[in-house]
Design brief:
The protein is α/β, with parallel strands linked by helices and about 200 residues long. It has 6 helices and 7 strands. Strands 1, 2, 3, 4, 5, 6 and 7 form a 7-stranded parallel sheet that branches. Helix 1 packs parallel to helix 6. It comes from Prosthecochloris marina.
Length: about 200
């Protein structure tokens, strides 16, 4: 079975600007500078691009699944211009403080749980590809992203954009492989230099 290497990317604060609340419209969605170029370089190096994002605003009634999916369509439109479109996207609608029978069944997917990564790996397997975890990375701006990547057997990178929880990672003993100022630095100064 053919192996693939994957970049699992958090969304808000990693790809697009964290606006302090949930992104509900295309107008609120702004890419962080260098994102398109970074993802395009990763794709050229043979990486699959998978978005994994907690979207608890759905359980809170702030944003709908349809809005999240529309924003992902918009993101792919923006990325496609630079040859950087993503391959798959997954989002988790649940939040422990906002119980909702419609969404509670997805609790296993809320980062730092590995459910979204597990689903992506299973989906690749169903398509005839095995995700090479030793050459795959998880990049995000929060401790839960680093922890999710580590739990899933991936190489974790923390970016300082968004929440940039470098100190919190240290306090909790959750160590990323690399800390970068942004996604562009993570990809150009670490991933591409360490690719096999």
């Amino acid at each position: 079975m053919r192996k693939v290497k994957v970049l699992f990317l958090d969304r808000d604060g990693t790809i697009n600007r964290d606006i302090g609340t949930y992104v509900t419209t295309r107008e609120q969605f702004q890419l962080i500078e260098g994102t398109e170029a970074a993802i395009a370089l990763a794709r050229q190096a043979g990486y699959q691009i998978v978005i994994v994002t907690n979207q608890a605003g759905i359980a809170k009634g702030i944003v709908t699944s349809e809005q999240v999916e529309d924003i992902h369509r918009y993101l792919n439109e923006l990325l496609a211009v630079s040859g950087a479109a993503f391959d798959r996207s997954y989002y988790c609608p649940t939040h422990p403080d906002y119980p909702n029978p419609e969404y509670d069944r997805f609790a296993w997917c809320r980062k730092p749980e590995t459910g979204m990564v597990d689903r992506a790996v299973a989906d690749y397997l169903a398509s005839g590809f095995e995700v090479d975890r030793s050459q795959s990375f998880f990049i995000g701006d929060k401790t839960v992203d680093v922890e999710c990547g580590l739990r899933a057997g991936l190489r974790s990178i923390l970016v300082r954009t968004g929440h940039g929880e470098e100190e919190l990672c240290r306090e909790r003993g959750i160590e990323p492989e690399f800390v970068a100022d942004n996604l562009f630095q993570a990809i150009t100064e670490h991933i591409l230099l360490n690719a096999c």
